[in-house]
Amino acid sequence: MTETFSTGEAVERVIAIGICRAEQDGTERSVKELGALLLTAGAQCVGEMIQRREGADPATYFGKGKLDELKELIAQTDADGIAADDELSPAQMKNLKASLGVKVMDRTMIILDIFAKHAVTAEGKIQVELAQLRYTAAHLTGLRASLSRLGGGIGTRGPGEQKLELDRRVIHERIGLLKERLKELERHRQVTRRARARAGSFVVSIVGYTNAGKSTLLNQLTNAGILAEDQLFATLDPTTRMLRLEGGEELLLTDTVGFIRKLPHHLVEAFRSTLEEAKYSDLILHVIDASNPEADTQMAVVYETLRDLGVLKDREIIAVFNKWDLASERRLPRDIHASRQIKLSAKTGEGIDSLKEMLRACLLQRRLSFEHLFPYSDAGAISLIRKRGTICREEYREDGIFIQAQVPPDLFGRWN
Ligand SMILES: Nc1nc2c(ncn2[C@@H]2O[C@H](COP(=O)(O)OP(=O)(O)OP(=O)(O)O)[C@@H](O)[C@H]2O)c(=O)[nH]1
Ligand SMILES: [Mg+2]
């Protein structure tokens, strides 16, 4: 993970806490991941604490005894705050603050904070702010009590470092306004999608767990120059680039926001149109960090999210086992949804050519054999076929130009 240097303000010292509800439920890893999220948000994770119990205490999250232990750890590590791995209720926030005397946060607040920091486009910023406002509206009493008097620092920053709004009336007005703006932007996105569909472009979406290497892969394939960093949620806004393959075929590749376990539902809602991008694609590249011991779980999280978004149905998927330069010794998990799989390193470029061949095979599979006699005056049609398909035979006959080609379905329909 990248080291974080603070500018001015002291780096907040936070303890990550979680509840283990059953043996091997992944809590330990999830709390570790929360530590990484804290680091990405600009804080320092100075300790971890997990309690085994059937469920969170509705009043205080941890049970009494564990809470005392936590108090001790706070004193020992000189922590400024705690972050729970589950979304806290307003009552839990209030009570924890009263009992511990430090800032109280949860996983959702940290993720929202990172999203706010990384949002670039107008749409991204609106989506984050909307998610944040909805979260705040649902936790208002808890947040008022649980944040420090000044109300600043991590977990409280909106896009553009704007401070968390805690006035209910202002929040609701703002939600209304942002929803309207977002609708407008979504309309634009639909227009772009329709234009792509009309142009018959072959559209490929890159999806995967955060930090799996999606942006690195798109950069490697298309020299896109997108920010790729050892950070969680480096990318929030969809970026689309064209890739021209060996045979001259073109396809559109889109890289977008990554997934994580417990992705806050307010974020999923606000980012729905961005996350759903994959719904409008012909093919999905599922990028997996094969070097991560958690690859199995991460893969399951990705599929769960895709299913929730209604993306999985009838979609062709290639499993891209990335970071192969670090993982060649590892046993690969099985991606049961993928029809093809490939191992590569987006960083070194090893295996990229094979992926391009695979993409080409998928694209050509969608093509249909086509024969037609074009009048000499219709040179435009032939150049279109050359651009979008592959011409296998071209004969200049007395009555016109005879073409035999492999073409995408929409061109096939045009002259048949
Ligand atoms: N060793 C190695 N590192 C890689 C490889 N691919 C990506 N990385 C590194 O993994 C980190 C994350 O890469 P990104 O491309 O930003 O990942 P992402 O999936 O776009 O992440 P988010 O946008 O945060 O969801 C970066 O530090 C990359 O340099 C690879 O094949 N091998
Ligand atoms: Mg990225």
Short overview:
By secondary structure, the chain is α/β, with parallel strands linked by helices. It is 42% helix and 20% strand.
Characterise this structure.
Helix 11 links the parallel strand 9 (316-322) and strand 10. The relative contact order is 0.09. The strands form three sheets. The chain has a six-stranded mixed beta sheet, with helices on both faces. A four-stranded parallel beta sheet has the order 2-1-3-4, with helices on both faces. Strands 11-13-12 form a three-stranded antiparallel beta sheet. The termini are far apart. The chain has helices at residues 27-41, 64-77, 90-100, 107-118, 122-146, 168-198, 214-222, 265-270, 272-275, 295-308, 324-327, 352-365, 379-388, 409-414, and strands at 13-20, 44-52, 81-84, 103-106, 202-208, 239-244, 250-255, 283-289, 316-322, 340-343, 368-374, 390-397, 400-407. The protein has 416 residues and is an alpha/beta fold. Helix 4 runs antiparallel to helix 5. It is built from 14 helices and 13 strands. The structure holds guanosine-5'-triphosphate and magnesium ion. The site of guanosine-5'-triphosphate has 24 residues, from helix 7 and helix 11.
Return the average pLDDT rounded to an integer.
88
* Category from helices, strands and their pairing: alpha/beta
Number of strands: 13
Name the hetero compounds present.
guanosine-5'-triphosphate, magnesium ion
Radius of gyration of CA atoms, rounded to a whole number:
25 Å
**Contiguous runs where pLDDT drops below 50 for at least 5 residues:** 1-7
Task: Give the fraction of residues assigned to helices.
Answer: 40-55%
Strands of the widest sheet, in order across it, are 6-7-5-8-9-10
Major β-sheet, in short?
Answer: 6 strands, mixed
The fraction of residues assigned to DSSP E strands is 15-25%
What order do the SSEs take from the amino end to the carboxyl end, as H and E? Answer: EHEHEHEHHHEHEEHHEHEHEHEHEEH
- Indicate the overall shape: elongated
Q: Span from first to last CA?
A: 56 Å
Number of helices: 14
